[in-house]
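Sample 3 of the quickstart, ligand zinc ion:
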Amino acid sequence: MPLDYGAAIPVNSISEEYEYLAAHPCPRCGGRWRVRVQALLQDAQGRHYDRVDVACSQCGERTVFLFDIQSLFTKQKANK
Ligand SMILES: [Zn+2]
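Result:
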């Protein structure tokens, strides 16, 4: 499945990612997601994304969430 950076979900913190996962549980059984792999990515423009591969803790359904975490990096730069 190719990653669609344009569809990335903007978040302002890593904890917001987990809130999003909790708010959007497995579409098949409503089970909670278990994070399998988390990876920091950058697109051709140098924008930062967090790719989170999850599996349903109940039925094993797998999916990938892509979060736009650019605001975390912008904020860090502004503070320095
Ligand atoms: Zn499930």
